[in-house]
Amino acid sequence: MHEHRFYGRRQGRKLSPFRENVLKNTLPKYIIDIPEETQNSSLNPNSLFGDMQPTEIWLEIGFGNGEHLAEQAKKYPNIGMIGCEPFINGVSKLLTAIEDENITNIRIWPDDARILMDSLQNKTLSRCFVLHPDPWPKKRHSRRRFIQTEQLDQFSNLMKEGSELRIATDDSDLANWMFEKTWNHPNFQWQAKSADDWRIRPNDWPETRYGQKQLAGKPNYFRFISAI
Q1: Average pLDDT of the chain, as a whole number
Q2: Active-site residue, from 111, 134, 173, 197
Q3: Where along the chain do its domains lie?
Q4: Is 170 a catalytic residue?
Q5: Confidence band of 218 (pLDDT split at 50, 70, 90)
């Protein structure tokens, strides 16, 4: 597998005993295990869901506290949802929602998403989300932003033709960066027909607490279709 350098926090404030217990006892039921013998592009994501046999696989990169992922999972119980989030405080919150609301179609990768993506079989994902990622606002840190040309290449490899990539941010500089990178990628087609299509959140796009805060400005909602 490729070597990746991870930037960002793994943990914030100290977890309460309850959250610690959730991570210890609940995470093992939903965590994704990549066998040591797994080679690049050899892991079938459908195999992660046991007897469920999901109709599609959706992937969310950096799910934060998991509000969006949990809402999508409840709305589409026949779709297998994979969430990647290295920040364990957020993982513990999602696990609490999973248990409280009896959500069975989520699997969690609590580490750098790129490690998992390197392992997945190509053309197996039907929808991908990158919502409110770290903007890394300093110019010298721009290469730490998740949306890069090489990452879009990998999304294109993993996504089925006609599948959807959804990107959101309330940071104007990051919005311009992500839009330019994806717009210029030959394998993705922007779906907006008017300004409202990227200024107004679609009805089937659950909001996150971060998105509601609008810390940097009005959110932008970009939808791209994989053309290959």
Answers
A1: 89
A2: 134
A3: 18-31+44-226
A4: no
A5: confident
